[in-house]
Amino acid sequence: MIKKYYLLSPGPTPVPEKVLSAAAEPIIHHRTPEFSNIFMETTEGLKYVYQTEQDVFILTSSGSGAMETAVVNTLCAGDKVITLSGGKFGERWGKICRAYGIEVKEIELEWGQPFTKEQLADELKAQPDTKAVFATLSETSSGTVYDIRGFGEVIAGMDTILAVDGISGLGATPCPMDEWNVDVLVSGSQKSFMIPPGLGYISFSRKAWELVEESTLPKFYFDAKAAKKSIGKKTTPWTPAVTLIIQQKKALDIIRSMGLENLFKHHRILGDATRAAVQAIGLELLSKSPGNILTAVKVPDGVDGVQFVKLMQGKYGAYIAGAQDPHKGEFFRIAHLGYMGGFDIITALSAMEMTLLELGYDFESGQAIKAAEDILKENWE
Length: 381
Ligand SMILES: *Cc1c(COP(=O)(O)O)cnc(C)c1O
Prior knowledge:
Layout: E1 6-7, H1 17-21, H2 33-50, E2 56-60, H3 63-74, E3 80-85, H4 88-99, E4 103-108, H5 117-126, E5 132-136, E6 138-139, E7 144-145, H6 148-155, E8 161-165, E9 184-188, E10 199-204, H7 206-214, H8 224-231, H9 242-258, H10 260-280, E11 294-298, H11 305-314, E12 318-319, E13 331-335, H12 342-358, H13 367-379
Parallel strand pairs: 1-12, 3-4, 3-5, 5-8, 8-9
Antiparallel strand pairs: 2-10, 6-7, 9-10, 11-13
Helix pairs in contact: 2-9, 3-4, 5-6, 10-13, 12-13
The structure holds pyridoxal-5'-phosphate.
Pyridoxal-5'-phosphate is lined by residues 11, 62-64, 89, 136, 138, 140, 165, 167-168, 188, 191.
């Protein structure tokens, strides 16, 4: 068989053909009116996805660089923060903060378990001098979406700010920054934004910007004040990733023409179909609060989870994601994020069924695909 490669991971995600070909165009200089126009149109498009009136800054870094930007621009050494850690990425907030001498109260959640706004309110009552709460919209390591709206309600009347990692969730599931009182919102280009890896995005509320003015943590490349000064001149402080920004503008045109609500609905349909499919053959979801960005599925008893992912990728070319440490081999993750359509999940589910059969799992072949098709058929527009 021809070895065909199907990118079905929760980042990087597939890129629309029109957006891919934009990378082959000649490079334009970044200090030109032509580039300034594209740059400002891109930031406008990002503001649309963020649903904010504030500036959205474009950083030349992956999403983690935008996370670091959130930390170094709002805090001072010795500040106390709370981080919600329900997986690999929630854990990263704590790692970044500790690297800068921040005192971290890390709330360790079991992977896939929700955390309520009441629980957050209790934590803040116990620790009233908390300067910031760091949370995750969609924890990509477990496929869980957290109650950011609820967290924003808790924090709204307080001095504490709410910083949210929206790296896989933003653009796929609702998180209107201004309406939900999110103070710092970060994201990355290779998840729901339909372009290759390499850009990070960040926006600060007015309340967060007051902390930016006072922040004393060391910073240079990721200085938000430098970005703010430059955006006033329709540019960036350093050489921007010109090509990626042009690609992002084209992808944002697609996103805007579809509309955020329709995009959320699209992800919901793919999420519903994937969940129904795996449950139809007796598999269990990992998350108690699964999002529509990706679906984490427990590897059934008797099946070797590491072998499962190896076969999916190596034999069938279906690049789903496995589980990260310390849960390696326990579950696998099917993405339905960004530029993926109904038939992408059918591909993933078909490869999943064939792999499970090969590894001796007992089920009625075809039932997962049928369950997904039933939902796709009903909702296809
Ligand atoms: C992918 C991801 C990150 C890390 O982003 P990089 O682009 O790899 O730096 C952080 N948080 C979440 C939720 C992610 O999905």
